[in-house]
């Protein structure tokens, strides 16, 4: 949700935010948590142990296998560091090397580098995690129809058709998706009370008109007396 410039020259966070910031940079700084890239460290302990085993072998026996990126990944996993979505995607794509995973450390690079990237536990976790991240992103895109900023718990946009149905029937059911759950919300509208208010208003207006005409004619009659 980006920052938008208001008509008065101020800036607001999101379409429905308050026009309270003097500049775009001030708006973005105040809402920096929104722009921060989310990270994850819930990968299995087995992935950490696989990475540690690969590092230990390299330190004790030496190895020319892999790249700086691969060994950086191994240290991240060994130290239980948080990983960005981009890093997780690279881990997931490493699955293409799984056909070499059973090569012994002292006979080639397949086994040691597979473990450096977390082994079966790490790569499979990355694949599942990437799917979860993408699904959450899709859900958030859907939720933006209803949720917009920190000042409001829920945003809901009524179409003209929905408003007419609510006004005519007195109630309206709306299904809202939130994460993996669905909420069925019932909006109600007291049609009878509204009709009474409208009748009362019409009656009041009619009485006011009668009063005005009565006063007007009384004034004319008094002039000719």
Mean pLDDT: 80
Order of helices and strands: EEHHEHHEHHHHEEH
* Cα-based radius of gyration, to the nearest Å: 33 Å
Query: Helicity level, as a percent range?
Result: 40-55%
How many angstroms does the end-to-end distance come to? 75 Å
Number of helices: 9
Shape: elongated
Strand order of the largest sheet: 1-2
Number of strands: 6
In percent, how much strand structure appears in the residues?
5-15%
Question: What does this protein look like?
Answer:
The protein is mainly alpha-helical and 225 residues long. Among the domains are: 3-36; 40-139, no CATH class. Helix content is 55%, strand content 12%. It has nine helices and six strands. Strands 1-2 form a two-stranded antiparallel sheet. Helix 3 (45-61) crosses helix 7 (119-143). The longest helix has 33 residues, at 191-223. The N and C termini lie far apart (75 Å).
């Amino acid at each position: 949700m980006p920052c938008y410039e208001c008509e008065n020259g101020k800036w607001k966070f999101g379409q429905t935010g308050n026009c309270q910031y003097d500049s775009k940079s001030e708006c973005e700084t105040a809402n920096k948590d929104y722009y921060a890239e989310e990270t994850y460290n819930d990968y299995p302990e087995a992935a950490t142990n696989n990475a540690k085993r690969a590092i230990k072998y390299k330190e004790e026996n030496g190895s020319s296998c892999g790249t700086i990126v691969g060994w950086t990944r191994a240290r991240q996993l060994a130290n239980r560091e948080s990983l960005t979505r981009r890093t997780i995607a690279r881990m997931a794509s490493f699955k293409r090397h799984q056909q070499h995973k059973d090569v012994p450390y002292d006979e080639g690079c397949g086994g040691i580098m597979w473990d450096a990237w977390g082994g079966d536990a790490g790569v499979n976790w990355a694949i599942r995690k990437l799917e979860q991240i993408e699904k959450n992103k899709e859900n958030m895109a859907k939720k933006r129809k209803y949720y917009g900023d920190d000042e409001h718990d829920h945003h809901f946009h009524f179409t003209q058709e929905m408003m007419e149905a609510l006004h005519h029937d007195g109630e309206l059911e709306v299904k809202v998706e939130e994460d993996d759950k669905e909420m069925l919300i019932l909006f109600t509208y007291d049609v009878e009370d509204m009709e009474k208010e409208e009748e009362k208003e019409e009656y009041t207006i009619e009485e006011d008109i009668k009063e005005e005409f009565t006063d007007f004619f009384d004034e004319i009659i008094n002039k000719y007396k």
